[in-house]
Amino acid sequence: MQAGVYIDTHCHLDAIEFDADRDEQRRLARVRGVQTCVIPAVTQVHWAGVADLAHRHGDVYALGIHPLYVTGAQTADAELLAQALSRAQNDPALVAVGEIGLDGFDGHPDMELQLHWFRLQLGLARDFGLPVILHVRRSVDLVLRELRRCPVVGGIAHAFNGSEQQAQALMDWGFVLGFGGALTFERALQLRRLATKLPLSGVVLETDAPDIPPQWLYRTAHQRAQGMPQGRNSPAELPRIAECWAALRDIDPIDLARTCADNARRVLRWPHRTLA
Predict the structure, then answer these.
(1) 171 Cβ partners below 8 Å, 6+ apart?
(2) 77, HSE (Cβ side, Cα atoms, 13 Å)
(3) What is the pLDDT of residues 122-153, one digit of tens each?
(4) Which residues are within 8 A (CB) of 105 and not within 5 positions of it... i.e. 6 or more apart?
(5) Domains of the chain, with CATH numbers?
(6) What string of H, E and C letters represents the secondary structure of the chain?
(7) How confident is the model over 235-259, as pLDDT tens digits?
(8) Measured between alpha carbons, how far is 41 from 238 in angstroms, rounded to an integer?
(9) Nearby residues of 212 by Cβ (< 8 Å), 6 or more positions away
(10) Could you give the CA distance from residue 243 to residue 251 in angstroms, rounded to a whole number?
(11) Could you tell me the pTM of the whole model?
């Protein structure tokens, strides 16, 4: 692997799944060429931790409240987020408001509550001139509606799995689309087709570690019932994910990685960082 080529644009390195070997996993990822991880927060109690972790490893971070965590959010968290963003205005490691967005999966938090927090955080991103890292599961059209109401400077639509038309609409609003372990599955035909058709200028690499494990780490329900634990995703898997995607597009994986890294730096606006 060539050093300093890859940027993992979505990695929850602060998650409890990494408590036993967090630094070792980050070291391994760097050995494999992952120069930078973008670490988004999911709740208010994680904000200080993701900032400290990013600084410790030379990574970057985002502050926000994830749509699946809005039921635990307090009214005061909106003002606390504004204060945290204000304090970090001169911190070059702060690159976005995130992870924010909407999740339309059945059984997830009430959509009106999700919309309340999404609108608040979009407003803060607009006020501070920051990009956003979007969660858009089964909600792309609703997210686009809110972006029209409160435009921001762009960002990343993480783990994108929508239509080509939705992809183009997000790109028109200044977003790039994140692809990761899900496209490594041979049966993910629609996602693979999309990942090969979109312009390279509109995509980035991600893992969503420890979640969305690639096919080589995935365990079926039957395997888990037999005692095989679900494979944990990590930023060290990013180069192999890139190789799979590059094979689908019939391009060199290093060229794919460099283009995706350039796209990430462009939309997240960290020109102080350069690739080796």
Answers:
(1) 177, 198, 199, 202
(2) 22
(3) 999 999 999 999 999 999 999 999 999 999 99
(4) 137, 138
(5) 6-268 (3.20.20.140)
(6) CCCCCEEECCECCCCHHHCCCHHHHHHHHHHCCEEEEEEECCCHHHHHHHHHHHHHHCCEEEECCCHHHHHHCCCHHHHHHHHHHHHCCCCCCEEEEEEEEEECCCCCCCHHHHHHHHHHHHHHHHHHCCCEEEEEECCHHHHHHHHHHCCCCCEEEECCCCCHHHHHHHHHCCEEEEECHHHHCCCCHHHHHHHHHCCHHHEEECCCECCCCCCCCCCCHHHHHCCCCCCCCCHHHHHHHHHHHHHHHCCCHHHHHHHHHHHHHHHHCCCCCCCC
(7) 999 999 999 999 999 999 999 999 9
(8) 20
(9) 159, 180, 181, 182, 233
(10) 9
(11) 0.95
- Judge residue 274's burial from the number of C-beta atoms within 10 Å of its C-beta, 0-12 exposed, 13-18 middle, 19 or more buried: exposed
With 0-12 / 13-18 / 19 or more C-beta atoms within 10 angstroms meaning exposed / middle / buried, residue 99 is buried
**CA dihedral over 12, 54, 37, 199, signed as positive or negative:** positive
Between CA 133 and CA 99 the distance in angstroms is: 5
Judging by DSSP bridges, how do beta strands 155-158 and 175-179 pair with one another? parallel
d(CA 83, CA 94): 14
Residues facing 148 on adjacent strands: none
